[in-house]
Structure formats: structure tokens, C-alpha cells
Write a structure and sequence with these properties.
The protein is an alpha/beta fold. It is 33% helix and 17% strand. The protein is built from ten helices and eight strands. α5 packs across α7 and α9 (225-238) crosses α10.
């Protein structure tokens, strides 16, 4: 039986204050509060800008020992450079502090933009540069440049590193793509995005990564009881022999934490 972890995509949302976050929970204590309710969360800030090692250390210190962070890969790599010229950029991203999470470091999520079409050669080259252990990640991180100062380039132990890829272009709906992911042990993100982007449920790694953006309206709509029951059934099936990570990204109307807790209850969390 695999491990099931359920969380939200990020935790800093003003509309959550006074609703999900009770009155009296200060801004700096929001992550600590969330981590008492759920057992994982996606770090979104790492997508928009390189974070600092001190931030990762702080986040790790605010959460329980068994908490896990998924880390969203830099959009400079995925959206601006579009996976090209990746060695120096990858070193900077890894040196920005991910390894400071220690055993709390979960999968790294790479999200491609909607206008990024399937390019098997480019993807294979990018996958080939991803470190598969924290030891190798520390070695790559040590090659960071001046844009990361200070850099975090050590690991407290050698652990495997996991990666997931979220796609948003219809050209990826082909067996060649899922075969490529499986060959490189990259999880295909199962993304429910109100029908706007492809929803592919094929398993391509030893874990499953699910992002629930809203079934009817992107980032806004909550999930019905029937919808949550359906996802709970799928997750039980996948978790029979692999780990499953689930993150709700329908945060606009405080639906994400509500739905995450409701799904967690269905799965016995």
C-alpha cells in the first residue's frame, strides 16, 4: 500500500483568513496551522522567483516531522527558456534552498505553458539532466552562479528525487509522450482543469501526482460530494501499489482547503 498525501497549492491567500484560517492565526503562522490539518503542500513561490535557503529552512521548521513539500519548478526554466539552456538555470534552482527541506522534500513539479507543444527530443534532453538523488542534486547546485547568494549546496542524506510534469497542450495526447515519461521515470500530472487542458490518467512512474484545479470552472469551482467520491476511488486504486500526492488548486473561493479536508476524510486521514 502506498502513501497518500493531500494538500493545497500554496497557503498564502488573503481570502482564507477568517475562513480556513481562524481569527487569531497570524500571517506567519498560516503554514504551521495548515500543516496541522493536512500533510503536504505545494510551494508556489519557487515557480515565480528563486527563493532563499532561509525560507526553505523556516518552512521546514514550522511543520511536523512527517510533513512533505512539493516544490514547483522555476517558470524561468519552463516558460521563459522553455527547457533550453538548462544546466546553469537548474543549478541555480537547486541551490536556492530545496535541499534545506531535508526529508521533507517531496516531488518537484514542472509545469509547461499552454503554448508548449510536445517535443520529444527537447524533453528527453531536459529529463536527462535532472538529478536522481539529493547527492547528485547537491553537486549540481554547487555550480550555481552569482544570481544565487547564498546557495545551499549540501544534503543531510542521500535520497531519491522525484519529478512530475504537467502539460497543457493537446499535442501531448499521444502514446509517445507517456512512453517517454515512463522511460525517464517522470510522473505525468493528472490535472483536472475544467476541460481546458488535457486530462491523462496514465501512470508513468512509481508515484501518482494529481492537481485538481476545479472541475467546472478553472481555479474557482469546488468539488461536489460525487466528484470527491470519484477521486477518492481513483486514489485508492492508484495507492494500492504506489504513493499518491494530491493538491487542490481551486483556491479562488476558499474551495481548496475545504475540498482537501473533505477528500482526506474520505480516505481515512
Amino acid at each position: 500500500m502506498g502513501e497518500i498525501r493531500i494538500g493545497t497549492s500554496g497557503w498564502v491567500y488573503p481570502p482564507w483568513r477568517g475562513t480556513f484560517y481562524p481569527e487569531g492565526v497570524t500571517h506567519k503562522n498560516e503554514l504551521a496551522y495548515l500543516s496541522q490539518q493536512l500533510d503536504s503542500v505545494e510551494i508556489n513561490g519557487s515557480f515565480y522567483a528563486l527563493q532563499r535557503p532561509s525560507s526553505y529552512q523556516k518552512w521546514a521548521s514550522q511543520t511536523p516531522e512527517d510533513f512533505v513539500f512539493a516544490v514547483k519548478g522555476s517558470r524561468f526554466i519552463t516558460h521563459m527558456k522553455r527547457l533550453r539552456d538548462g544546466d546553469a538555470l537548474l543549478a541555480n534552482f537547486l541551490a536556492s534552498g530545496l535541499l534545506a527541506l531535508g526529508p521533507k522534500l517531496g516531488p518537484i513539479l514542472w509545469q509547461l505553458p499552454p503554448n508548449f507543444a510536445f517535443d520529444p527530443v527537447l524533453l528527453a534532453e531536459f529529463f536527462g539532466h535532472l538529478p536522481r538523488t539529493t547527492t547528485r542534486a547537491a553537486e549540481i547546485a554547487a555550480q550555481h552562479d552569482h544570481r544565487v547568494d547564498p546557495g545551499f549546496t549540501t544534503t543531510d542524506a542521500e535520497r531519491p528525487m522525484r519529478y512530475a510534469l504537467e502539460i497543457r497542450h493537446p499535442s501531448f495526447v499521444t502514446p509517445q509522450f507517456t512512453e517517454l515519461l515512463a522511460a525517464h521515470d517522470i510522473a505525468l500530472v493528472v490535472a483536472d482543469a475544467a476541460g481546458k487542458y488535457p486530462l491523462i490518467e496514465e501512470v508513468t512512474s512509481n508515484f501518482v501526482y494529481i492537481r485538481l484545479h476545479g472541475h467546472d470552472e478553472l481555479y474557482v469551482s469546488g468539488y461536489t460530494d460525487d466528484g470527491l467520491d470519484m477521486w477518492a476511488e481513483k486514489i485508492r486504486w492508484w495507492a494500492a501499489d504506489r504513493d499518491v500526492f494530491v493538491y487542490f488548486d481551486n483556491d479562488a473561493k476558499v474551495m481548496a482547503p475545504r475540498d482537501a479536508l473533505a477528500l482526506q476524510a474520505r480516505l481515512g486521514g
